[in-house]
Design brief:
Structural class: mainly beta
Number of domains: 1
CATH architecture: Beta Barrel
Oligomer: single chain
Shape: elongated
Number of helices: 1
Number of strands: 12
């Protein structure tokens, strides 16, 4: 009988101790440091024209697909790689330059002005079959929380290139991890 009561006493003690120590545990709050964004958008090339219409210089819209990866360095600073792929074939009359499915890679710094609004700038190459060139990118994005570390991210940017520039508007879906 004494063995049963001491076993019951030990069980009660362990149960009570577990309950007391569990009160001291604080749930972990994870601060994701990485962000990946998939985006769809359009580039507007003011000096561009449809490939078959080389005489006009009325501007041309090019659909784009993008993928961005960012790493948080500080509460307000991120560094990232932005990759955009233009999905069309066009001509720049002032540069006598044909562009076909250009890929743009830029290494950017991203600064958060507020919790949701950020600005970014960076450099990189535009790789294309006819002529590769350097690109300076500047832009802004606004991240809206969707839950479970997902965000909806509309963005505007300008790419300055040798002799001409392009403007971009995109919408993306980003995951923080």
């Amino acid at each position: 009988m004494a063995a049963k009561s001491s076993l019951l006493l030990w069980f009660f003690f362990l149960f009570l101790a577990g309950t007391v120590f569990a009160q001291g545990l604080v749930p972990l709050k994870l601060d994701p440091k990485n962000r990946a964004v998939f985006s769809l958008g359009y580039n507007f090339i003011p000096k561009g024209t449809k490939l078959g219409n080389r005489e006009a210089e009325d501007g041309f819209f090019v659909p784009t697909v993008g993928f961005d990866y960012f790493r948080k360095l500080h509460a307000r600073w991120e560094i990232g790689l932005m990759w955009d792929w233009e999905l069309d074939h066009y001509f720049i009359k002032s540069e006598d330059l044909e562009r076909e499915r250009a890929m743009i890679f830029t290494l950017v710094g991203n600064f958060k002005l507020t919790e949701k609004w950020a600005v970014f700038a960076g450099l990189g190459p535009e790789l294309e079959e006819h002529r590769n060139q350097a690109v300076f990118r500047i832009g802004t994005e606004y991240a809206m929380v969707m839950g479970n570390n997902w965000k909806f991210v509309p963005a505007l940017s300008c790419d300055l290139k040798n002799g001409y520039s392009t403007w971009s508007a995109s919408v993306g879906f980003g995951k923080f991890f």
